[in-house]
Design a protein that fits this description.
Order of helices and strands: HHHHHHHHHHHHHHH
Number of strands: 0
Strand content: under 5%
Number of helices: 15
Largest sheet: none
Helix content: over 70%
Length: 327
């Protein structure tokens, strides 16, 4: 998964460079296609080419022909950037997002290596005496079956978490559950608000209506809680109400952010303020991701060490019990 995240980082980074250099979309696709594309990059570029041939834009092309090459989060952010005439900025924001994901996942995996080694030792070592007192078959049953159960459990948990994370983009309740997880919740919230603020800035700079810009930013956030808040806020904005007081009523938006937005709205500087907050939320998300990458392996090690201690104590208690029964 880390490699696919890095491939997406490189893809959006290359697209941001080529479009930022003034190349047309077709020239940019031609330039990107000269490199060894890989399956996903080729699917991505082919989807855009097909869409352009049908008279569609980049976001609409990916939504129609992209399949599993892109997520709704990517398409929504690209659509907002395209409408605002800021495609290079939108692509670079996605490139930074996927790089952060890849780096964090790599650090967590590296941190998990030693705890997982201890776990395997804790499972494989205690029943080792069965090789001498019973048979190889008895040892394999006592050691490999628990590992197999563990692998199945971890696999199911992984797929379940991925499904829930996908659902959290549109479900406020599931998004709130992820918000309760230390570091992960803060990281998800900060990055979602960073996307929200960045897309809002892009839309405002394009001269679109504030209500339309706000709705588009919420859709691109990838957060069910932000999307849920938009259903209450957007109608109020269309009625002429100010953004700041509306944001203050929604728990997903920090109070400092709501206050800054209210002040910026009064002085006509919403575009500059949203840009500043987009950067701040991105940095806060990076700090939370770094903390998660540092502490989750440590917590796993504590749990595995406790499990290993229990297995060793259980082994010796059983061993001494056998000795006493023979005496």
């Amino acid at each position: 998964m880390t490699s696919s995240l890095r491939q997406k980082h490189l893809l959006y980074s290359d697209l941001a460079k080529t479009l930022g250099a003034g190349l047309s979309v077709n020239r940019a696709l031609e330039t990107l296609g000269r490199h060894d594309p890989g399956k996903r990059r080729d699917q991505f570029l082919s989807a855009i080419r097909l869409g352009l041939g049908d008279g569609l834009g980049i976001a609409s092309s990916l939504r129609t022909h992209g399949g599993d090459a892109t997520s709704p989060l990517e398409v929504n952010l690209l659509e907002a950037a395209e409408h605002g005439g800021q495609l290079p900025e939108g692509c670079q924001h996605l490139a930074d997002y996927f790089l952060l994901q890849a780096d964090t996942l790599q650090k967590i995996r590296s941190g998990f290596a030693y705890p997982l080694l201890v776990l395997h030792v804790a499972v494989l070592l205690p029943p080792l005496h069965l090789l001498f007192t019973d048979s190889v078959t008895a040892y394999l049953k006592a050691s490999l079956i628990p590992l197999l159960v563990l692998y199945v459990f971890l696999g199911l948990a992984w797929f379940g978490i991925r499904a829930l994370m996908k659902a959290a983009a549109t479900s406020a309740s599931i998004d709130s559950l992820f918000g309760l997880i230390p570091w992960i919740g803060k990281c998800r919230r900060s990055l979602a608000l960073s996307r929200f603020a960045k897309v809002l800035q892009i839309s405002l700079l394009s001269g679109r209506r504030v209500s339309s810009s706000f709705a588009e930013a919420c859709a691109a956030s990838g957060s069910g809680r932000v999307l849920d808040a938009s259903r209450r806020i957007v109608p109020q904005i269309e009625m002429g109400n100010e953004i700041g007081p509306l944001l203050e009523k929604e728990a997903i938006f920090p109070a400092e952010f709501a206050h800054s937005m209210a002040t910026a709205e009064h002085v006509g500087a919403l575009d500059k303020e949203t840009g500043r907050w987009a950067q701040w939320f991105q940095e806060e998300g990076s700090r939370a991701a770094a903390s998660a990458a540092e502490w989750f392996p440590r917590l796993l090690f504590v749990l595995i060490a406790a499990f290993a201690g229990w297995k060793i104590i259980s082994f010796y208690l059983g061993y001494f019990s056998q000795i006493q029964s023979l005496m």
